[in-house]
Amino acid sequence: MLQEIYVTKNKYFDKHPYLKGIFFPLLGESTLFESSNQSWATKRKVLSTAFYKEKLNLIIVLIKEEVRKTMLLWKDKYVTPQKEMNIVSEVSELFARIILSCAFGEDISEKLIMIETDGVVTHERLASAFRNQLERTLFRQFGLQLVLLPYSYNYYLSSKDRETKRNCDRIR
Fold this sequence. Notes:
With 172 residues, this protein is mainly alpha-helical.
């Protein structure tokens, strides 16, 4: 049944264009949110080679390694000194490192990138920057401007929105 829904009859279960608008600043022209048309089908076929069993097994190895390194880090940072841990922040950071490692085949999460926060440009680790900008991009949709004027999503009217857009451009 899942095969039928996601592969055979995918054209009947298209992605809503609003999703593309939400993630565009960070992910750009991603196949993930493209309409199910011939162009999408061609790109999907090319990308499918990345998800063969052998490659998925390699991805699992990368994920296990990231989790192992994170557990050691948490032990040194929180368990041994008996410090309180923000589990949501730490797990989202882990997810960001996993996504970056799987996407690029190596751990680039420690690479520094320029990020703007409240008008001040600093350097931030790529994993943190990716996680923070993804969060800002997602939560932006719940701002008053977009609740009242949902079709203004592609316009960055506030300074905070423009800052998020610049940061997303830097990450891409």
